[in-house]
Amino acid sequence: WLFPLYLFIINLFVLPIALGGRLTFPQGGVDADMFVLALPMANHKPDLALLAFLGGLSAATSMILFETITLSTMVCNDLVMPLLLRANPRWLAQRTDLSGLLLGIRRAGIAVLILLGYLYYRFIGESYALVTSGLVSFAAAAQFAPPILIGLFWKRANRRGALIGLSGGFVVWAYTLLLPAMARSGWLDTGFIEHGPYGVELLKPYAVLGLDHLDPYMHAVFWSMLFNIGGLVFGSLLSRPDPIEQVQGSQFVNVLEQDRHDGDSLLWRGVAETADLYDLLARFLGPQRASEAFDHYAHQHNGYPLQADSRLIHYTERLLAGAIGAASARVMISSIVMGEVLSIEEVMTILDESTQVIEYSRRLEQKSRELEATSAELREANNQLQKLDQLKDEFISTVTHELRTPLTSIRAFSEILLANPDVSIEQRSQFLGIVVKESERLTRLINQVLDMAKIDSGRIDWHIEEIDLRALIQDAINSTSQLFRDKLVALHADLGDRSVIVVGDRDRLIQVIINLLSNAVKFCPDQGGEVTIRLHPLESRWRVVVTDNGPGIAADQHQLIFEKFHQVTDVHGGKPKGTGLGLPISQKIVEHHGGSIWVESILGEGASFIVDLPSKPNSE
Questions:
Q1: Is residue 481 situated within a structural domain?
Q2: 467 within a domain of the structure (yes/no)
Q3: Are residues 389 and 313 in the same domain?
Q4: Total of domains in the chain
Q5: Which residue range forms the structural domain that includes residue 329?
Q6: Same domain for 477 and 395?
Q7: Which residues contact 80 (CB under 8 A, 6 or more apart)?
């Protein structure tokens, strides 16, 4: 995070300086690169201008030193040393100290780089601002990004695709930026910039194919990246990577999954003496640095063996790579390591076997996770089955009791009437009324069980038609009025004064309203019970709310009461009231009509059952 912070801080003052330069020199007579010096001079502050000049000089000098040293090291390690090793390896092997050779190559590289930079400035750079030259360089450096980034994540990317992409990208970069820069410096005719080569307007360097609304640098980056990425993908798809590229691709793409222990993952079967590795390192780094490096390794690994292992070889190779480059270091290490040479076929066989083992391990892990998930699902299903079995037992017990109670009453009063034919007419009427009432109760219970079975099996018949919901609720109130009178419960209805048209099965919907009203009466207190039913419109639907002042329902029961066979106990924890089928049946009916039903309640403060039904389209 320090480097991004450093970049942010050094650019923090760019905007105020640029803004001050534009305000102080509105005519543009001063080059923007000179604002830092021109602003103090314009305000008669020569001391400040001198300080800014010294700061800029030191920054520019340090930048030149840093860049030339870095570039010369890269040239030495990745260009010159591999060529020397390939051209005359015996000559290098005979030299005991190569540190002087490395320094000489790098110093020569520094001189050549500074000379090239000066020549570019003299012949091309004077026609452009400093920032402009930097943008041209950045656009060129950006061409290396696609093969690096795509190569890290796409195994199919290969050398041929990268070369095709880089070639296309650099050609487009040179055509859209470098050649126009040379033309503006007088080295080429400027006509092709304004009219395109041979007068072809679509090939103008700053407006290729008519794309002229972009900044020249954004325009160049767009087209060069398009050709770069396209060439990389196209070339990689047309050619297969060779075995070495496959190995390297797997190492880079799966780098985060590989073992990072020093040298443990190296594919190496050979013998090397530790003394030979030390001598090799001393030839390029010098005896002092080589000794310090080996002492550091010994401290980390509790000494080092006389016969080097793979970790020590890998450690030495990394140190050499910092001095002469990775390719040259690999060649030098191979020159002293005596061992069995692994053919490409052996390498690929080992790689294939390792890949198969890794893939098999991954599959085992995946199967293990799947089995664990399945086991958890089975445990959950078993728990649900146990709960359902318990609910079924409770339901059977409740239904048996509910059936026995009316049957016992019917049988008892029937036997009384049969054994006492001289019973008075008033008593006979009373007993027959009880028999009829208990028969109706028995019928309701059986109908609920049958309705639930039909709904679950999908065999229920629906008679869909237009219904006046307000009239339907009024009919349900009339049907349950005797229940309210018997329990002395007050009923308040707020239904409005106009028809409410919905589409549905009238018998099933009135069954829902009657069930909600019956439940409300059932749970109202013996004295002072009140039930309110309201009907009011919402956006594209109608809402029915049935509220009572009973004991309420606990929050953990709000979802459970809509499950089959679940019954709510009374406030004293006594026997459950009802069969546990009324609300599940009501929920199924409401959901079939495209609506929803739920309860809102606080324990001890009554309950409100809410039903939302979609309104008939284009209806009031």
A1: yes
A2: yes
A3: no
A4: 3
A5: 259-342
A6: no
A7: 105, 109
In a domain, 480, yes or no: yes
Q: At what angle do helices 425-457 and 582-592 cross, to 10 degrees?
A: 50
For 222, residues 6+ apart whose C-beta sits below 8 A from its C-beta are 211, 214
Residues 278 and 383 in one domain: no
Q: For residues 232 and 224, what is the distance between their CA atoms, to the nearest angstrom? A: 12
Domain membership of residue 579 (yes or no) is yes
- The CA distance from 388 to 63, in Å, is 78
Which whole-number Å values give the CA distances from 95 to 89, 91, 282, 319, 336, in the listed order? 10, 7, 11, 19, 15
pLDDT in tens, 523-562: 888 888 999 999 998 888 899 999 999 888 888 888 888 8
What single letter denotes the amino acid at residue 546?
A: V
C-alpha closest to that of 391 among 458, 455, 457, 452: 452
Helix or strand or coil: residue 597? strand
pLDDT digits (tens, 9 = 90+) for 342-400: 555 555 565 566 667 677 777 888 888 889 888 989 998 888 888 878 767 776 776 77
Regarding whether 537 and 594 lie in a shared domain, the answer is: yes
- What is the three-state SS of 380-392? HHHHHHHHHHHHH
Which range among 126-130, 153-157, 229-233 has the greatest average pLDDT?
229-233
- The pair of three-digit structure tokens given for residue 436, joined into one six-digit string: 């009829």
**DSSP 8-state assignment for residue 240:** P
Cα atoms found within 13 Å of the Cα of residue 299, Cβ hemisphere only? 6
Pairing of strands 530-538, 490-494: parallel
Alpha helices, DSSP H, located in 561-620: 582-592
Q: Which residues contact 473 (CB under 8 A, 6 or more apart)?
A: 493, 495, 513, 533, 535, 544
**Same domain, residue pair 575 and 497:** yes
Distance CA 453, CA 567 (A): 18
DSSP string, 363-409: HHHHHHHHHHHHHHHHHHHHHHHHHHHHHHHHHHHHHHHHHHHHHHH
**Do 472 and 422 share a structural domain?**
no
